[in-house]
Design goal:
Largest sheet: 7 strands, mixed
Keywords: Methyltransferase, Transferase
Order of helices and strands: HHHEHEHHHHEEHEHHEHHE
CATH class of one domain: Alpha Beta
Oligomer: single chain
Helix content: 40-55%
Number of helices: 13
CATH superfamily of one domain: Vaccinia Virus protein VP39
Strand content: 5-15%
GO molecular function, one term: methyltransferase activity
Pfam families: Methyltransf_23
Protein name: Methyltransferase domain-containing protein
Organism: Lysobacter brunescens
């Protein structure tokens, strides 16, 4: 689908009374969720990548208290954290998007990956299997993430991650996966300040951000730098409530966490030759021209910050 047609369709759905329901149905039949097994599999891959990067700086999930920003349609990452022994997982979303059928599919797919989960976190497979057995049995009676996870998962939606109501210092790890690119810049600043208080001294934040043009996933005729040719005024026409994109670059996202007081201990951002070539062939909007091409062209970043305390 041409990206402009997708943008106009989503813009229209965004103002209709039943727009959210219609948008979800279109996503399931024509859009990114028409193959939910693939999407859930990618999220499990993302969880494994997050865990390995956290392990690289000495952080473990078992026994930890976590908060996820942006729950989405199924709690793949919180469920995986529960299965490997997390003590508590709060997952917050501005909109109540969780779908019971997708959650049940997610549970079934996680059941196929138990040895992988145990190995990734270096925990006893028997313990993971025991938690999974309880999860699977409870999911036959309830669609509530807390009920089916021995009370470990706390799903809150609608909820604002910048005003969670959780006690200061009560969280070991705050994380997000493909969320911050969809959050307005001022809200990201509030989230960083709030999580600086939520995370205990010596605690951590992990954010994986896809900061490329998401319209490129629907339209093979464009690439992930396409939206950099538009001014803010022009881009406002194509932005919509179902696919809001703030267009922040990777270094700006990392700098935002640093400005909030986190020590950045991992930053995976790097310029790919293909993206540099694509950028050089484009007419860039004036507001982006002050950014060095090696920074402007980056479309993905994972970063970890540590709360140094007072």
């Amino acid at each position: 689908m041409h990206w402009k047609l997708k943008g106009l369709l989503q813009k229209t759905l965004g103002v209709l009374p039943a727009g959210e329901t219609l948008h979800y149905r279109l996503q399931r039949h024509l859009g990114g969720m028409r193959n939910p097994r693939r999407e859930i599999g990618l999220k499990i891959d993302d969880w494994e990548g997050m865990v390995k990067q956290l392990h690289g700086v000495g952080v473990r999930i078992p026994g930890a208290r976590l908060m996820e920003i942006g729950s989405g349609w199924y709690p793949a990452l919180p469920l995986a954290c529960y299965l490997v022994g997390a003590a508590r997982v709060h997952t917050l979303d501005l909109n109540r998007l969780l779908k019971p059928d997708l959650m049940r599919l997610c549970i079934a797919m996680l059941g196929e990956q138990l040895p992988r989960l145990a190995s990734t976190c270096d925990v006893d497979l028997a313990d993971v299997e025991a938690r999974y057995a309880r999860l699977r049995e409870a999911a036959n009676r309830s669609d509530d993430p807390g009920t089916i996870s021995d009370g470990v998962i706390d799903y809150r939606a609608p909820a604002d991650a910048a005003a969670s109501g959780l006690p200061d210092g009560s969280i070991d790890i705050v994380f997000s996966n493909s969320v911050l690119e969809h959050v307005p810049p001022d809200a990201i600043a509030r989230i960083h300040r709030a999580t600086r208080n939520l995370v205990r001294p010596g605690g951590w934040v992990f954010h994986s951000v896809n900061c490329g043009d998401h319209y490129a996933y629907a339209d093979p005729g464009i690439h992930q730098l396409n939206y950099l040719q538009f001014s803010d005024a022009q881009w406002a026409f194509w932005n919509n409530r179902f696919l809001y994109q703030n267009r922040l670059r990777a270094h700006q996202l990392v700098d935002g966490a640093r400005d909030a007081g986190f020590d950045i201990v991992l930053d995976t951002s790097h310029a790919r030759p293909q993206r540099l070539q694509q950028l050089q062939a484009m007419a860039i909007a004036e507001q982006f021209r002050h950014i060095a091409p090696e920074k402007l062209c980056i479309t993905t970043v994972d970063f970890i910050g540590r709360n140094p305390g007072a």
